[in-house]
Amino acid sequence: MGEGSSRSDRELLEELRRHRAELRESMGALEDALASPATADRARWTQRVEAALVEVAGDFRAHVDITEGPSGLYVELLATSPRLAGPVEVLTRDHALIGGQIDDLLGRVAGPEVTAAVDGVRRSATALLGRIVRHRQRGSDLVFEAYEFDIGGET
Predict the structure, then answer these.
(1) What is the rounded distance in angstroms from the CA atom of residue 113 to the CA atom of residue 120?
(2) Mean of the pLDDT values across residues 133-147?
(3) 17-29 pLDDT, tens digit each
(4) Could you read off the pLDDT of 78-123 as tens digits, one per residue?
(5) In what residue span(s) does the Hemerythrin-like domain sit (predicted)?
């Protein structure tokens, strides 16, 4: 990272890699929750999906902090590689869209009195997972282009 930074490029990229793995894990938990049977106990299914969504939301917020924060990846990239402004802008827009999708889904499954419409929640959550996967792919490409460092393009 630039002068006066409290962490090196390598430290930032390793932190990004760790959080990336955590997000991938919470995405897997959401996928498992969505795939579980909902017919026998819809309230239990809804609770499981909500818990997984809360984990995805937390991990995604951590990702946004690491990338968009005052000492985050995007600040560093724009300072050292202004040519990457376009991809950074696309990823930043993704953050807002993904955050909105997460909030919408949480609103649909939150609270003990809510029984989610299973098909609609599954459809929306699957679309969310797809958007996150594509975002992660673009983020991985950006980091590799900037640093020639693979943060883990496993998805």
Answers:
(1) 18
(2) 91
(3) 899 999 999 999 9
(4) 998 899 999 999 999 999 999 999 999 999 998 665 666 889 999 9
(5) 13-137
Would residue 2 count as lying in a domain? no
Helices 118-147 & 85-109 angle (0-180, nearest 10): 160
Whether residue 59 lies inside any domain: the answer is yes
Tally Cβ neighbours within 10 Å of residue 128: 22
Q: Which residue do the tokens 């430290």 mark?
A: 11
Q: Encode 34-71: b = buried (16+ Cβ within 10 Å), e = exposed.
A: beeebeeeeeebbbbbbebbbbbbebbebbbebbeeee
Pull the structure tokens for residue 18. Answer: 């760790």
Domain count within the chain: 1
In a domain, 87, yes or no: yes
Domain span at residue 28 reads: 9-147
Spatial CA neighbour of 78 closest among 67, 93, 64: 67
